[in-house]
Amino acid sequence: MAATSLAASLALAVVPALGVLLPATGAAETPPLPPQTVRPALLFLLPGASWQELTQPSVRAAWRWLESQATIASLTTRTGSGYDATAAYLTIGAGSRAYRVPDSAGTAWQGTEDQDGWPAMVWYRLWTGYDPGSAQIVYPGAAAIANAHTRADHPVTPGLLTAALARLGIATAVVGNADLPGEPWRPVALVGMDGQGRVRLGRVDSGLNRPDPTAAGGLHLDPDLVGATVERALRTGSTGWVVVEWSDLERLQRSRDRFLPENLTRLREKELIRAGQWLQRWWPRFQQAAGGRLLLTVTSPYPASQYAAAGELLTPLLVYPQPAGWLTSATTRWPGVVANLDIAPSLWEYITAGRAGPLTGSMGRPWRVVPVPTGTTAEASQVSQETAATKASQVTPGATTAEVSQSDLWQRAAAFARFESAVSRLRPVVLRGYVLSLLVVFVTAILFLIERAGIPVFPSVKNRPHPRWLRGCLNGAVLALAFGPMALLIVPPLYPYGSTVTFLSVWAAGLLAAASVTAATRSTLGGLLTMAGLTTAALMVDTWLGSPWMRTSLLGYDPAVGARYYGIGNEYMGVLVGASTLLWTTILDLVPGPVRRAMVGDPTAGWDHWKTWRWWWWAGEALAVLVTAVIALPFWGANFGGGLTAAAAGIVATLGIREENRRWERGTDQPDPLVSPGPVPTADTASRRGWGLTRAGWWWTVLAIAAVVVVLAVVDALRPEESRSHLGILVHQVGEGGGSALLLQTIYRKLATNLKIMRYSIWTWGFALGLVVLFLFFLRPSPGFRRLLSGRPYQARGLMAATVASLVGFAVNDSGVVAAATSLIFPASSLLLVALGCSINQNAP
Question: How far is CA 313 from CA 74, 305, 413, in A?
Fold first, then answer.
C-alpha cells in the first residue's frame, strides 16, 4: 500500500499542475448548425452478426453491392459489463464503456403506447421527473440506467451523442422492435436516446411487426414500414442520425434456446440475407431523402452467444461509401481494428462536419481510413482458413504491400477474426500451464536447496546424496522457462493445432534454447544472460516496429478483450524490465571493476582497469534509459505505468551500484571511485544488512520518479490530439476542468482493476512466490544468502532493483499483478541458478 500511496501522491501533485499549464481544448458552447451543413448518417445494426456469417457465400451475395466502396474493420465489443447486449447498445451512444441495463429499467415505449394500462408518458414523468417535450419515444427507466452509472469507475454519460447533437439542433431517430409475444423489448432506443431517455423521432412500437409463422416468436419486421419510417425521418431537415436495428436477429438471439443449433444458424443466415437485400433496395431512396450526403455504418453491437463462447468477440464494421481500405483510430492505432467507443465520436465528426470540435466526454476517438490498393480486373486468391490463421502477414489487416481486391479485404478481416478467436481460446489455457510450470520448477528448486543446506524436507531421503542429473534437470528447466516469453513470440503459427501442441512447443523451444546457450557459454548463468540479452533486444526492436510479434503472442494483448491495442503490454513490459536490469547489472560483476579488483586481491590496479569498467557502467546506464524510453514514450511503447516501473528499476540499480562502491571505499580513507578513480581496497562485507538503499537513496528515487512523471506527461500532452495516449488525454481532461476528482477516479479505477485481476489471475501466485523470496532475502538476508551473492554485489543490486520495480509495477498499472510477476521471471531465475551452481554435491554419482 505504501507504493500505491506514493503513486497516487505523485499523480495528485504533478498532473493537476500540468493541466493548469497546458491549454484547454474543450469545445465551447456551440450555436445550432444550419440544416444545410448537417451531414446525416445511418447506423444499421445487425445484432450478433459475425465475420464468419457475413463471408458465407449466400450472405455475401446479398451484401456484395456495397463491397466496392466500403471501408471495413473489426469492432471490439467489450463493455463495462463484458459482452452484455444492453451494455453494448449503451456504449455506442455514450462513447464510453457502459454497464448493463438494470432489469428494473424495463424497455422503451412509443409515446402513444400504453404500459401496464397507463400511457407510457405518465410512467416516464413519474419515474424520471422530466418533461418528454416533443419526443416520440421515451425510456421510462432512464433514471435507473443513470443510477447504475453513478457508481462507474470511469466517465460514462448514457446518451452522450444524441444529447450533444440536440444542443446543436440536430435530431435523432431510431427504428426497430424486437418484441416477443408478451415480452416487449426495444433495445435500439438505448443507442439513440439522450441522457434523459428521450428520442426525438422514429418508431419502436409493436406496429412495426407483422405475423409470420416461419419467424422467431411468430413476428417479423415489416420491411416496407421500416423503410418508410427511415425515409420520413431523413426528409426532416433537422435529422442528423438515424439508428435502424434489424430486430429479427435480436429476436432470434432472445429465443435461441428454443432452436436446434443448425436451425438457428440457418435462420440467422436467412435474416442477414434479407437485411442486405432490404438495405440495397431502399438505399437509393434514403440517399435521395438525405440529399445525397448520407453515410452508412453497418455493424453488430455485440457477438452472438455461440460466437462469444468460441472466443470470436470481434464483429464486422462497414462504412459506405468510403475509399477501399481499413478503418483505424487513435484508440487502437491498429489498421483494421476500431473500438465500439469510437463510433460516437466518429459519427459526431461526420454529422457536424468537424465544425463543433471534438465530442467532449467520449473516451473514444474518431476513426480514419488507411487506404489499400485494390485490384480492378480479377480478385486476388482467396485466403484459406488454415493458411490465414497461421500466417501473421495474412491475418494482420494492416498489410497493404500487395494489390488486393475488396473481396480479399473481407477474407482478411474474417481470417483475422478467426485468428483472434484462437488467441482468446488459447490464452488462459497456455498461460495457466506456463505459470503452473514456473511454480512447480521454482518450488522444487527451493526444496532442493533447502535439502542441500542440511534442513531435511523429506526425512526418508535426507541421508541420500542428490545425483548430478537432478541439479542439471533443474538448471535446464529454469532456463527453459526463462525462454518462455521469447518462445511465445514465435509459436503463433501453431495456434490452430490447439493448446496442447502450443504449450508443448513452448517447452520444446525453451529446452532447445537452454541446451544451446549453455553449450555456447559453458555456464548456466551465462546462458541466462544470453537469453536476457536476446529477449531485451527482441522486445525493443518489436516495439520500435509497432509490436507485430507481441500482437500475435499469447503473452501480448488481445484486441478482442480491448485492454490494450498498441505499444507494449504489461506482460512483456515486465519481462523487458526484469531481463534488461538483470543483464546490465550482472555484466558489471564480470568486468574488472572497483569491487571485483578488490575481491580478487588486486587493490592496486591502475586507471586502465577502472576505465574499462566505467565504459561498461555507462553502457548499462544507457540501456536502462533506453528501455525506459522505449516502454514509456507515446510513439513507442505508450505504457506510462511501465515507464515508471522501468525508471524505478534503473534508478534503484544506479544508486545501489554507487552505494556498493562507497561501501568498499569506506574501509579506508580512499575517495569514491565513481568520483575519483583510484585503487579500491578490500573490505569486509559480512556485516552488510542487505542490499537496500540508504534513506537518502530512497528519497532520490522518489524525486527521480516524479521527474519521469513530469517529462512523460508533458511529452504526451503536447502531441497532437489524435496521437495522444491515455496519459496525455488525462492531462488535458484535467486541464479542461476535470480536476482532482477525475484524477482520483482514474486512480481508483486502476486500483479496482488491479484488485479484481489479483483475485482471478494465475499470475498472482507467481508474483507472491517470487516477491516473498526476493523481498525477504534482500531486506534481511541470512548469512548464507550474503555469502551466496558476496562475489556478485552488482547482480545483487540488480536483483534488488527488480524487486522494487515489481512493487512499483504492481502499484501503478491497472493489471499490475501481471507486470509484477513477469518482471521477476529473469531475476528469480538468476537467483536460483546461482544457488544451484553453489550446491554441487561432490559425492553424487
Answer: 9, 10, 13
